[in-house]
Amino acid sequence: MERRLSNQLVLHGAIVMLLGLLAGFPFAWVIGGTMEGDLRAWRMAHLEGVLNSLLLLAVAGFLGRLALDVRKQKLLTWALVVMAYGNIVASIVGAATGNRGLEPTGPAANLVVFTLFIIAIVAVVVALGLLIYGARPGGSPATAKVSVQVSERSVTRSTPIATTSATVTSVSTSLSDDDDDDDDDDDDDGDEPMNRAERRRLKKRKR
User: Fold this and answer.
1) Residue 7: partners with Cβ closer than 8 Å, 6 or more residues away
2) Three-state DSSP class for 97?
3) How far is 131 from 161, CA to CA, in rounded Å?
4) Which residue has the higher pLDDT, 203 or 20?
5) Beta carbons within 10 angstroms of residue 143's beta carbon
6) Is residue 26 over pLDDT 70?
7) Model-level pTM?
8) DSSP alpha helix (H) spans, the chain
9) Exposed (0-12), middle (13-18) or buried (19+): which is 79, by Cβ within 10 Å?
10) Residue among 75, 68, 70, 73 nearest 124 (CA)
């Protein structure tokens, strides 16, 4: 699960970075005077894509080291994704339409920019809260707990196998001893009946 969430952060981080780089073309055209527009707004759109994507890629690298369970890891991942898309889309729409989205008023494009920025702000607050909580001193990653449980299970499973092997060894040893006794009896078959009787008496006396 942790690997899938990290891959999601990398995927959406790359998409957001691509959108930011594409927003760099209008930014350059405005600088060169070939297109009319707000230079500040296009600069913001360009930087929003690059900076938000870098945050997603950075968190993807140490997501497994945070002291967060799977549910909190999911919440952190999708909060960052919503934040990144909200910022880049709002910035591009604002730059293209000339609306800054500072107030919830018309026209419709301004309402869209305002709403997207508010959603992005809420998402980034949730994401930063989870990052602070997961990186707290003394916290242990959830993956470490899973590895400890797996190692404990492997140890408990290996114990019966060792006991079984010891039992098999003792049984084979006893069987080999019985075979030696049988061989001694077989060697006696070649002697005369009187000799066999005497040897059996000697064995009983020794025992």
Assistant:
1) 60
2) helix
3) 44
4) 20
5) 14
6) yes
7) 0.67
8) 2-22, 24-32, 39-62, 70-97, 108-134, 142-187, 193-206
9) buried
10) 75
Query: Which residue's structure tokens are 């910035």?
Result: 91
Which tokens in the block code for residue 168?
């098999």
Does residue 52 contact residue 84 with C-beta atoms inside 8 Å?
yes
Give one word for 33, left, alpha or beta, with left for phi > 0 and alpha for psi -120 to 50: left
pLDDT digits 0-9 by tens, 134-149 = 998 876 665 544 444 4
Give the span between the Cα atoms of 132 and 125, in whole angstroms: 11
84 touches 48 (CB < 8 A):
no
Residue 106 φ then ψ, to 5°? -70, 165
CB within 8 Å of 171: residues ≥ 6 apart: none
Is the Cβ–Cβ distance between 69 and 145 less than 8 Å? no
C-alpha span between 75 and 64 (Å, rounded): 14
User: Residue 62 is encoded by which pair of tokens?
Assistant: 């140490």
Q: Can you tell me the distance from the alpha carbon of 99 to that of 95, in angstroms, rounded to the nearest whole number?
A: 7
Q: How many CB atoms lie within 10 A of CB 93?
A: 18
